[in-house]
Design goal:
Blueprint lengths: L4 E4 L5 E4 L1 H7 L3 H4 L13 H14 L1 E10 L5 E12 L5 E10 L2
Antiparallel strand pairs: 1-2, 1-5, 3-4, 4-5
């Protein structure tokens, strides 16, 4: 499998999408780039996304976040994600890189 990561801007829109994530979640880059990451999140897990994004902003990283995400076909897939805050030289949180892998 290729590198599996996506990058979110400060508004939680997907701004980068690799072939590895495409393989897991089935979206072509043109279908997901610029869209809110919440299109990938089942309704019952959206509060957890808000909480983990707050942790990333505060702590700089979250390792081993277990979740389910929605594929393009509407199927749920279990994933484990590592999230990393990308900061400006001034220290402002300007993006989040998320490495995704299928959960065992």
């Amino acid at each position: 499998m290729s590198d599996s990561f996506l990058t979110l801007d400060p508004r939680m829109n997907v701004v980068a999408w690799t072939s590895g994530v495409q393989e897991i979640l089935e979206y072509e880059p043109g279908e997901i780039l610029g869209r809110p990451v919440l299109v990938l999140v089942p309704e019952d897990q959206r509060a957890a996304v808000a909480a983990v994004m707050r942790r990333v902003a505060e702590e700089g990283r979250v390792h081993g976040f277990h979740a389910e995400r929605m594929t393009r076909s509407g199927r749920r897939v279990k994933v484990v994600a590592d999230l990393l805050a990308i900061r400006t030289p001034a220290g402002d949180h300007c993006a989040t890189q998320i490495t995704v892998r299928r959960a065992p």
